[in-house]
Amino acid sequence: MKTKTIFYFIVLFFVFLIFSGTMFTVNQIEQAVITRLGKPVRVINEPGLHFKIPLLEVVAFFDKRLMSVELSALEVTLGDKRRIMVDAFGRYIITDPLKFYQAVGSERGVLDRLNPVVRGSLSSVLGGENLSSLLSETRISVMNRIRDEVNRAVRSFGIVVVDLRIRKTDLPPQNSAAICNRMISEREREARELRAKGIEIAQVIKSTADKENAISLSEANTKVQILIAEGECEAYKIYIEASLKDKDFFKLFQTLEAYHQAFNSKNSTVVLSTQSAFFALMKGK
């Protein structure tokens, strides 16, 4: 009895394994391809509980949602002969899981199949564009053209590229170094020109200031000489008018001034004849 019970349990266990292997669930964000011995037999797009032949059939699940793919950087020659590095990414959706399974195999293999197609489209479309068009509003239309060309090429993959964008454009490393060196040389040349122009302007300002200073000093000296001459003329006029009013007093004043000038210094020595007119005042004359 005990052996028979164990046997029943073993049979039930295998029945359960076989029965559970026949069922699988597809949720709302998935779609599935069922293969029998490696060959696809049907596609399931509706969510719910489904059945398959255990051990013979295998289910491959694929996402229904919008998925992203990072593309490798590509060096492209533009229409104006400039070379740039393009870093792009894309978003795609699986529209035909059977074609996708047959052409790509799995979602991990998308990059290997999509990357060369996108690189070729980028090279062909950007080869006719200038760098200015990639930096303006026309960039969107350029990317749409690349997207449409990629979609025509990947139609057999069972996917549709919904969006394709350039994340970043940059110059190749060797070009970047050359451009940086050229920019440095250009800035140094501009700095030299500005310094030379500054020195020239400084010299002009200094020369103008020196000229204006010399003119101002000359005009000031001229005014001083004129004022001195006018003052001396006025003093001489006053002197003459004073002498005409009282000649004797004026003569006395002149004599006293002469005495003052002659005997002003303590070390002055004057040798004159006593009969000289210089001593006439001292003699009471």
How would you sum up this structure, described in words?
By secondary structure, the protein is an alpha+beta fold. Among the domains are: 44 residues; 104 residues, Tetrahydropterin Synthase, Chain A (2-Layer Sandwich), CATH 3.30.479.30. Helix content is 53%, strand content 21%. Strands 6, 7, 8 and 9 form a four-stranded antiparallel beta sheet that branches. Helix 3 packs across helix 5 and helix 6 crosses helix 7. The longest helix is centred in the last third of the chain and has 73 residues. The protein is rod-shaped, with a radius of gyration of 56 Å. It starts with a helix and ends in a 23-residue tail after the last helix. The model has no long low-confidence stretch (mean pLDDT 80).
What is the distance, rounded to the nearest whole angstrom, between the alpha carbons of the first and last residues?
Answer: 186 Å
Quick one: how many beta strands? Answer: 9
| Helical segment count | 7
Q: Give the second-level CATH assignment, the architecture of the domain at 67-170.
A: 2-Layer Sandwich
Order of helices and strands: HEEEEEEEEHHHHEHH
Main sheet makeup = 4 strands, antiparallel
- β-strand percent reads 15-25%
Mean pLDDT: 80
Query: What is CATH's topology name of the domain at 67-170?
Result: Tetrahydropterin Synthase, Chain A
* Main CATH class of the domain at 67-170: Alpha Beta
- What level of helicity do the residues show? 40-55%
Shape field: rod-shaped
The secondary structure category is alpha+beta
Q: How many whole angstroms does the radius of gyration measure? A: 56 Å
Q: Unreliable segments (pLDDT under 50, ≥5 consecutive)?
A: none
The CATH homologous superfamily name of the domain at 67-170 equals: Band 7 domain
